[in-house]
Amino acid sequence: MSAILFAVGEMAAASATTLSAGSATSLGSIVSPKLQSKAFIVKCNTRNYLRNFSGLKAEAFVRCESESSFLGNESVAALRQSITPEARNEMQRSWNHVQSQASYKVAVLGASGGIGQPLALLIKMSPLVSSLHLYDIANVKGVAADLSHCNTPAQVFNFTGACELANSLKGVDVVVIPAGVPRKPGMTRDDLFNINANIVKGLVEAVADNCPDAFIHIISNPVNSTVPIAAEVLKQKGVYDPKKLFGVTTLDVVRANTFVAQKKNLRLIDVDVPVIGGHAGITILPLLSKTRPSTTFTTEEVQELTLRIQNTGTEVVEAKAGAGSATLSMAYAAARFIESSLRALDGDADVYECSYVQSDLTELPFFASRVKLGRNGVEALISSDLRGLTEYEQKALEALKPELKASIEKGITYAQKQTVTA
């Protein structure tokens, strides 16, 4: 267990924040306009009684000791209501006070883009991050200056252009790659391939040369192909560790949780839907039969929810009418996965996320599924989610395999061809 003391200065009433305490707590809250500079304590039990709050770890009990609660009365009340009696009794028996320290370095490659900027802000708010390295080919200096004013532990450093890429990666624990061009109306993820494939290849080569032991999080689309490209590059460099290469598919889970909670009138804090396969179109397969808490869906609801989860990216692209893609929700989802990775690195033994990784759960070399994260990356692939599928899910799983296989082969072929050319 741990108790972490935070000093909170004046903050704007409209600002939203995600607060993480140690390796256990992450809470969303709107700041009260009455909040002044005060200290408050969040006491966290990191043993056995943690619950999920939109996928981020929510503490089973929160105590705020100040005149103004940073969390707000409603947030605290919601968390307290979610505690089981067993958790209350356990935490009443003993408390152990430990001071959390930021100790991890994170690099964002593509930090001045539509995903990179909000993602950098969310990472800056993690108390586990001591150093935030922001890299891009242009316009990153201003982003770093802006973020550096936020009174959170992470120091912010900016790096611009290819000549500074290596320095941006020195000593880094986690690398996140949102770099690349976004989808525009009428574009598929395959339309992005030639541009983004080359960008990812170059960045991963730099990662291999400068921080080969880092966790690598690939956001750049098409993820179904860019992750295999990254794997081939790392193999060619002799530093490939399949446990440390991740395709970030968390946005599919975030969307599935949100849509299911809305459709079935459930508390979002309770909902968890595993999403398997890949990260594009029909390769995205939400396993609604595995929804927690256990929920019944009609055939029509299953079809409607599945199609919406698969196509919501296009929905956002069309709604923005050429002004961008799903940047904010993607940044949120990536921040969730990064926080999970940091907690795993920090020794949390109860970290599970869905991710697109090298896998033997199917005949495909890469596959998205729920994984257990640890200090060395993927500790286990959760195969139980693929057992006992409904007829609809089983047919959808078989239907997605040819498309996913083609995307994987396209990425591998591209990387190998580039090597021959070089």
TrEMBL record:
GO terms, molecular function: L-malate dehydrogenase (NAD+) activity
Cross-referenced InterPro entries: Lactate/malate_DH_C (IPR022383), Lactate/malate_DH_N (IPR001236), Lactate_DH/Glyco_Ohase_4_C (IPR015955), Malate_DH_AS (IPR001252), Malate_DH_type1 (IPR010097), NAD(P)-bd_dom_sf (IPR036291)
Gene3D superfamilies documented for this protein: Lactate dehydrogenase/glycoside hydrolase, family 4, C-terminal (3.90.110.10), NAD(P)-binding Rossmann-like Domain (3.40.50.720)
Lactate/malate dehydrogenase C-terminal domain location: 249-412
Organism superkingdom: Eukaryota
Keywords: NAD, Oxidoreductase, Tricarboxylic acid cycle
Any one annotated GO CC term: mitochondrion
Reaction catalyzed: (S)-malate + NAD(+) = oxaloacetate + NADH + H(+)
EC assignment: 1.1.1.37
Protein name according to UniProt: malate dehydrogenase
